[in-house]
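Subject: two folds for Thursday's group meeting

Dear M.,

Sorry for the delay on this. The cluster queue was jammed most of the week, so I only got both jobs back this morning. I'm pasting them in the order they finished. Each block is the input sequence followed by the predicted structure tokens. Could you check whether the formatting survives your parser before we put anything on slides? The first protein is the one we discussed after the seminar.
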Amino acid sequence: MKPSKESIVTKIWNEEPEPDNPFAARACYCSGFDVYGDLLGKISWIQYLWLLIRLEPPEPAQARMLEALAVGLANPGPREPSVHAAMCAGVGGSTRASALIAALSVGAGNLGGARDVFAAMGNWADCGTDLAAWRERIRNPPVDERDDVWPSFEHPPGFDPNGAGCPTPVRQLLNHLTVLDPGPVLPWLQQNREVLQHEADAPLAFSGVAAAALHALGFTPEQGEMLFLLLRLPGAAAHALEQKMNWAKFPFFGNGLRLTDDPGPSSPDHE
């Protein structure tokens, strides 16, 4: 009895079956390109990632810009909440998958996370390089359509409400991407960064640079949200693996908490 032919509807992927096994692929095509026959060994991971999301290969300049952004986002560092979450999972003995899920869950939010990028890309789509439009958007932000899922923003997306000044790595990434961007987006952001920071009363964050770069590359806010989550996972994985269930070497609170203003022992009446 032959299995019934199922119809899998997708523009992304197509498979030709092996002659002796209809459930095994003889050839796999991504957006029409033979992955293992033509692409393997000829394109980079970033180029393939672009092809999967956009269904067309990137131009060389586009691939260089996305690769530079990927390097800049790959490891937010152990103090970043999503990486810290993965580290906690690692040191607690959770599975490796749990560590990555923890990083994705914590890194999905609207404080420097993927939802922050999504909202900032929406601002780019609406405001472009119109400074007056940006001022109005920052002063009167729109209501999130999914406020049933996400809490309301307490800061302009793409900016760090807890920051004092724009960190050097953020400026370095923006400077590098500006050189790679032939269009107006990143050069405009670099030129107007301090004006926008003053309007937002907060410094530009990595999420803001990522949103501008992904918008300049033509990704939709939904695509940018996904890519931001994906591109920050390598650092979370590396830091989670480093823990190896050793609380004594966990980089946070290794020596315990020390009070600098200890009021002394409590009186018996307050014990």
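Second protein, same layout:
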Amino acid sequence: MASTLRNLSKYDENKLPSVKGVTFGIVVSEWNSEITFKLYEGCFDTLMKVGVTENDIKTALVPGTFELPTAAQMLNQKYNPDVIICIGCVIKGETKHDEYINHACASSLSNLGAQLGKPFIFGVLTPNTYEQALDRAGGKHGNKGVEAAITAIRMAALKKDLMG
């Protein structure tokens, strides 16, 4: 469903699976930090609100969205969290750079998830304008960081159910 029709941060806490014992990794791009740090805040706060402890969250910062998959793999090797959330923002510009970066990041995270049997969450905004990014980083369309946290919780529970 298009985000213009739905606030991304609305969820029912009572319908979420338990987070007891679940560990999370979060990798955040510093490029467009005024957006990505709001996404991170929404993500982190949501995890804390539903009962994740600070000790069960490991965070890494990277220069840009293109670096998210590499850092996610390094974070995975060091801490082995149950799920890794990648947060970034690539705003369309005058060239096609956004398409290359977004495609490379999405493909790499998808491949990591398939190879390692672990959820790597694509919490990357791909807006056409800065205003659209703000709308999705705590603005009128909610906070995609919250959505990434909820997706991570649900995928960690699915992994536990299917893989033990």
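Two things I noticed about the second structure. The two ends are 32 Å apart (CA to CA). The longest strand covers residues 83-89.

Cheers,
T.
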